[in-house]
Write a structure and sequence with these properties.
- This protein is an alpha+beta fold and 108 residues long.
- The chain contains three helices and six strands; from the N terminus they run E-E-H-H-H-E-E-E-E.
- The chain has helices at residues 24-31, 35-44, 51-58; strands at residues 4-13, 16-23, 62-68, 82-90, 98-101, 105-107.
- Strands 1, 2, 3, 4, 5 and 6 form a six-stranded mixed beta sheet that branches.
- A hairpin with a 2-residue loop joins strand 1 (4-13) and strand 2 (16-23).
- The longest helix is centred in the middle third of the chain and has 10 residues, at 35-44.
- The protein is globular.
- The two termini are 13 Å apart.
- Residues 89-108 are annotated as: Disordered.
Length: 108
């Protein structure tokens, strides 16, 4: 099965919130779920993701996130949306960033 997905996340810090697109691989790492589970839950079963559980898991984690302009645009991606190029958990306690997942979008 060769599914390719991308996900949109709200990234919030002290300066505000922005929406960025994240690849399937990074999303799986951040959300602790594989893309097939997410796609099956949202697209096949028409259920919501257990966002409350995911939010609780991420609430006390701090991330270093690198954003960049996309090299290509997905058909349903808004103009000006940035892409998460890397995301690593950090120990820095002076910054708070949290990610809130949106529903996944299946990529052709």
């Amino acid at each position: 099965m060769d599914n390719r997905c991308h996900f949109e996340l709200n990234i919030t810090d002290n300066s505000g919130t922005l929406t960025a697109t994240v690849s399937e691989t990074l999303a799986e790492k951040i959300l602790c779920m594989i893309a097939e589970q997410i796609y099956e839950t949202v697209a096949i079963k028409k259920e919501s993701l257990p966002i409350a559980h995911i939010s609780r898991q991420l609430a006390h984690k701090i991330f270093n996130i690198q954003l960049q302009k996309p090299t290509f645009r997905m058909p349903n991606q808004k103009i000006g949306t940035l892409v998460v190029s890397s995301c690593t958990e950090t120990d820095e306690g002076n910054k708070k960033q949290k990610m809130t997942p949106f529903a996944p979008t299946k990529k052709q």
